[in-house]
Predict the 3D structure of the following.
Amino acid sequence: MKNEPPVFYHPDTLKPDESIGRLMREIMSAMASQVDRELAPLGLTEAQWMPLLKLHLNLASTSTELARECRTDAGATTRMLDRLEEKGFIQRARSAQDRRVVNLELTSEGSRTAQHIPAVLCKVQNELLQDFSQEDFDTLKALLRRMLGSAKALAAAKEPRA
């Protein structure tokens, strides 16, 4: 007989402020606010630093790839790219092989600016983890990976089959 998984939440005793989702959302919000403050002098907002970093790390080279990497829709990605282009951080270039494809390239200013992003992300995350031991940190990562694995398995199980 298969063991039933534990049930941690019950409708009659639910305290939304104590839910894992709420706690993670508050942590992400606090982290995003701090990263925004740190990157503001570089002229970057939360919506702009991630695409700039993805381009810098060569994780995307087109608007479609960038939207997928940043998990945003095509319209929002286009508007954000317009702002990055206006600021002189990126340029668009038609592909020589396929004129329908528009490649995204960092300008020299965009590249210089993007080089600062990893240090800011490390600084902010290290500040949030300052009261953690190495063991705490390793345990937290392992637990979050396990939770993410469960989330992905649930999502895959609920996807319609072709």
